[in-house]
Amino acid sequence: MATTHFDGFLTDGTDDVFFNLRLVDGLVISVQAEPDADSDVHVYLPDTIPTPDGDGWRNEDQWEAKLTAGDNPADGRYFWDVPVADVRALIEEHGGEHAYQGV
């Protein structure tokens, strides 16, 4: 299954910003990556996506969503240093990347 947009984030990086990635099932995750990332990325999962199984999702930041939410509390969780393979598996579990990635 192709992950064209995710691959672009890995190649180009996201300039320390989380970029949204719309999945086929309509859910959206956010990814932050360094240029030429080949091992780990940071991922924001909304509460509508259960935490995937596996050690790659063990590095959850319990406070980041609360500290950065301001007046709009975040309904999700941040995970640091998630292996690229685990993020690909998550994308595939949700049917892949949606063809439309716009807002």
Descriptive notes:
- The chain has 103 residues and is of the alpha+beta class.
- It has three helices and five strands.
- The protein has helices at 4-12, 64-68, 84-93, and strands at residues 19-22, 28-32, 40-46, 60-61, 76-83.
- It has a five-stranded antiparallel sheet with strand order 1-2-3-5-4.
- The two termini are 23 Å apart.
- The model has no long low-confidence stretch (mean pLDDT 87).
List the main descriptive attributes of the protein structure presented here:
single chain, 103 residues, alpha+beta, 5 strands
Report the count of strand segments. Answer: 5
Ends apart, CA distance between termini: 23 Å
User: What proportion strand?
Assistant: 25-35%
Rg over CA atoms, rounded to whole Å, is 13 Å
Strand order of the largest sheet: 1-2-3-5-4
Order of helices and strands: HEEEEHEH
Helix content: 10-25%
Summarize the structure in short.
This protein has 103 residues and is of the alpha+beta class. It is built from 3 helices and 5 strands; from the N terminus they run H-E-E-E-E-H-E-H.
Outline the secondary-structure elements.
Elements: H1 4-12, E1 19-22, E2 28-32, E3 40-46, E4 60-61, H2 64-68, E5 76-83, H3 84-93
Antiparallel strand pairs: 1-2, 2-3, 3-5, 4-5
